[in-house]
Amino acid sequence: MFCLEEELKKLPDQPGVYIMHDKKDTIIYIGKAVSLTKRVHQYFQASHNEGLKKAQMVKQIARFEYIVTDSELEALVLECNLIKEHRPKYNTMLRDDKTYPYIKVTLGEDFPRVLFARQLKKDKSRYFGPYTSASAVKDTIDLLNKLYGLRTCSRVLPRDTGKERPCLNYHIRQCHAPCQGYLSKEEYGKRVERAVRFLNGEYTAIMQELEEKMAAASAAMEFEKAAEYRDLLNSIKQIAQKQKMTDANDEDRDVIGVAKDGEDAVVQVFFIRGGKLIGREHFYLRIAAEDARAQIVTAFLKQYYAGTPYIPKRIMLPCAVEEKEVLEEWLGSRRGARAYIQIPQKGMKEKLVELASKNARLVLTQDKEKLKREEGRTIGAMKEIGALLGLPGIVRVEAFDISNISGFQSVGSMVVYEKGKPCRSDYRKFRLKSVLGPDDYASMHEVLTRRFLHGQAERRELLEKGMEEAYGSFTKFPDLIMMDGGKGQVNIALRVLEELQLNIPVCGMVKDDNHRTRGLYYKNAEIPIDKDSEGFRLITRIQDEAHRFAIEYHRSLRSKGQVHSVLDEIPGIGPSRRKALMIRYASLDAIRAASEEELKDTPSMNERAAKAVYQYFHSVDEGKKI
After folding, report:
1. Prediction pTM value
2. Which domains does the chain carry?
3. What is the CA radius of gyration of the chain?
4. How far apart are CA 443 and CA 568, in angstroms?
5. What's phi and psi for 435, nearest 5 deg?
6. Element of type H or E holding 138
7. Tens-place pLDDT, residues 383-418
């Protein structure tokens, strides 16, 4: 038994991290302290006031644990890691966990490629970024590949040189086929070097080169080629124009602004790389109404820079933060070099921070309206449905559907909506076991029985373990069951609930002759719905989602049963060898015409497999097999 007074006495006067648990043993708060005994004692002193949010948290603390560290810096690192792992309810939290795209040049390869990457890894590649727009990164990669004729394939060169035919890019003149030996390693390397210079911002030489090629093509009356050079030139000019905001200092830096309104906050980050503003991004945070800007910024710094792969030399903030020296030390240890936190007081730097804050305020204002509209589409729509049925307080809705083709591989679907939004982690698929033929009523009876029997079994198991308030995948029961159909389907559901002694409201989603949602069937009566209401739109979305989920599952089962190739009949030819043969040879006739030696040279094939394929196509029974 945990005794609060006794455990408080055991706290050491050392730096570390403390972890608060509630009565369900859920972690609700994680913090760090220079002195664990002083910091944790503060929470339980009547005179101590840290605001309403912390006061509510303290009431829920059932126990705490702690981890001692050698320094405050170690405590900060541990705190960041634990918050990111457990995402406690009462910590100021980022609402999303974004990763930023990079452009990766695989310089560790003999014939490097330019790729899209989400993570910065310690390999022989060179990374450019981070960028805030994935689409802009992809456009830039496409431009570089077209401009310099770089390969996009994953072949291992020079090992695979000449083993396969050149791809489409070679035939449309977007790649010079180093895979065929048409371009030497040295010449290809020069092209990669120019691409790297481009990514470093050296546009002038490239633009001059393109202008010369455009003029030469035009003089030779090769107008299509000249137009191609013109389009490439315009693309580069657009990219160069995005780099107008520059600084004489080429330092990498992040500029941070913040705006708050009640329990909502937005942090805006400007990314400056090589003295150029390359992009911006905003983040939503969950805060307490009384949280100060300094607290919000401190929480953001810890969580964001604990997860981002790149940390700039300097981070500019809108206000002073506590633990500045410790944060700088931590950021420097993650960066591998000195990092600075700066609060500009005048000049262009202060204006840049103010601009970031202004953008944060703009995002917050705009998104408040967006959130209100979204609430109308979701929670508001659910309230409308509840009012129609006389069922206030509906939170969780489950909808069911059956899919089959003339009774073939009948399947059932269960989709779940909570607070008007799809809860996809709770979706479930059912492959019918006891029903043969196209009997939708019997199929639905089986699906519903299996769903709720499973839920009752999970509940009993959790109760036996003393976990009354825990939830398994089927343990949550809905506030409302919505059937894809009218009276017949509703009665099937009511019969299942009666057999299992459950009391859950059931309504049907009725469609008209054109298969469009018409109304709800509830308590032996059809209830019309205003087709312009959010409630009607939500019912339509739920019905369509249940149908889509069932159809997709049924389609996947049909595909698995129908995908077959004549090559599967050959002993020793599995999926990988079949795929290799299909890639190398355009048709079965081409495979039949190949010699044993040619077949053996196909990737994944060996002498035994090649012999089996050759004999299969050249045996006396060949005509019967194909």
Report:
1. 0.45
2. 4-91 (3.40.1440.10), 102-241 (no CATH), 253-366 (3.30.420.10), 396-560 (3.30.420.340), 566-625 (1.10.150.20)
3. 32
4. 34
5. -110, 130
6. helix 134-148
7. 999 999 999 888 899 999 888 754 456 788 899 998
